[in-house]
Amino acid sequence: MTRSADILALLAAGKTTVQVVRELGCTSAQVYNAKWASKHPKRAPYVRPRPRHDLACELLDSGLTQEQAAAKMGVSVRTIQNYTSEARVGRPKGAVMPT
């Protein structure tokens, strides 16, 4: 498989799309895709803010029980469990949320 870096190097050296296709044995679509990708870098993924999840984690990390945190936030214990299980995915047990 032809790497985009190889295509871009040949284009930077002044080769045309047709010359790059002949030299690397790739398709013209691969050349155009490499050019497009070099001009349009990938954006960082959007992460939706979750203030209620963060608050639930902070309350539990401060030493409150799930029942106390639920009463303080005005939600059910199950909602607290949902908030904290979703927010803690990929974090080690007991890790504190970054501020």
List keywords for this structure.
single chain, 99 residues, mainly alpha, 2 domains, 6 helices
How would you portray this structure in words?
The protein has 99 residues and is an all-alpha fold. The protein folds into 2 domains: 4-39; 51-87. It is built from 6 helices and no strands. It has helices at 4-12, 17-24, 28-39, 51-61, 66-73, 77-87. The protein is rod-shaped. The two termini are 44 Å apart. The model has no long low-confidence stretch (mean pLDDT 84).
The coarse silhouette is rod-shaped
What number of structural domains do the residues give? 2
Proportion of residues in extended strands: under 5%
The H/E string reads HHHHHH
Uncertain runs are none
Helix content: 55-70%
Please tally the helical runs, counting DSSP H or I stretches of 4 or more residues.
6
> Averaging pLDDT over every residue, what do you get?
84
Structural class: mainly alpha
Annotate the secondary structure layout.
Elements lengths: L3 H9 L4 H8 L3 H12 L11 H11 L4 H8 L3 H11 L12
Helix pairs in contact: 1-3, 4-6, 5-6
What does this entry show, briefly?
The chain has six helices and no strands. By secondary structure, the chain is mostly helical. The protein has two domains: 4-39; 51-87.
